[in-house]
């Protein structure tokens, strides 16, 4: 995968440096505190949370060049929503521009990302909320005039099983971490 090494690096970012602390607080508000245990059925569902802040991060596949992107976290939950399940599979993410989507004007798809099972496994980790996948989505079509977006995520479990879909709500994008040149005045810090 083209961005495999870069996404692995982005998964270790300090959430406070990129504005994701409030995103993680929202995760707790939506899903509640994690509960230990094992799901009793194989029927699960996907959920995700993304920071509305556009950030810059170094891309090791491009010699460390800074690239614009979005940070988020994907969770696979049991049917009750009580357990975050450690699992493997393929993740597909589509980004849509919803800025001018009114009436008969549909949203425009801007980006498509594909995470193979090996890459996704490297992005999985347990945090204070439970097991999930830390995602950095390099946004090559970013423009400052894009003010509203949403994403559609499709998780396909490894070894078969029913694919799980999740669509974020429409998010108002915050470009404040970028200066006039489109660069980040304070790039995200990395966890040692």
Task: Name the CATH class.
Answer: Mainly Beta
Straight-line distance between termini: 24 Å
Second rung of CATH, namely the architecture: Sandwich
| Total domain count | 1
Catalogue the unreliable spans: 1-41, 184-192
Number of helices: 3
The largest sheet, given as strand count, sense and whether it forms a barrel, is: 5 strands, antiparallel
Write the layout of secondary structure elements.
Blueprint: H1 4-10, H2 21-31, E1 45-50, E2 55-59, E3 65-77, E4 89-97, E5 108-115, H3 117-123, E6 124-127, E7 130-138, E8 148-157, E9 164-167, E10 171-172
Antiparallel strand pairs: 1-3, 2-3, 3-7, 4-5, 4-8, 6-7, 8-9, 8-10
Structural features:
five-stranded antiparallel β-sheet, Immunoglobulin-like, single chain, 3 helices, mainly beta, 13% helix, 192 residues, 10 strands, disordered C terminus, disordered N terminus, globular
């Amino acid at each position: 995968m083209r961005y495999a090494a870069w996404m692995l690096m982005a998964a270790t970012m300090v959430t406070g440096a990129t504005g994701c602390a409030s995103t993680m607080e929202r995760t707790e508000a939506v899903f509640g505190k994690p509960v230990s245990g094992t799901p009793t059925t194989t029927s699960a569902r996907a959920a995700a949370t993304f920071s509305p802040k556009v950030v810059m991060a170094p891309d090791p596949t491009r010699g460390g060049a800074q690239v614009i992107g979005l940070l988020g976290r994907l969770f696979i939950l049991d049917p009750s929503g009580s357990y975050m399940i450690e699992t493997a599979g393929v993740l597909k993410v589509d980004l849509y521009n919803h800025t001018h989507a009114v009436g008969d004007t549909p949203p425009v798809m801007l980006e498509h990302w594909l995470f193979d099972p090996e890459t996704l496994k490297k992005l999985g980790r347990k945090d204070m909320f439970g097991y999930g996948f830390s995602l950095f989505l390099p946004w090559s079509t970013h423009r400052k005039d894009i003010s509203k977006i949403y994403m559609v995520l499709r998780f396909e479990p490894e070894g078969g099983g029913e694919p799980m879909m999740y669509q974020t709500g429409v998010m108002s994008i915050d470009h404040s971490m970028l200066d006039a040149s489109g660069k980040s005045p304070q790039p995200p810090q990395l966890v040692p």
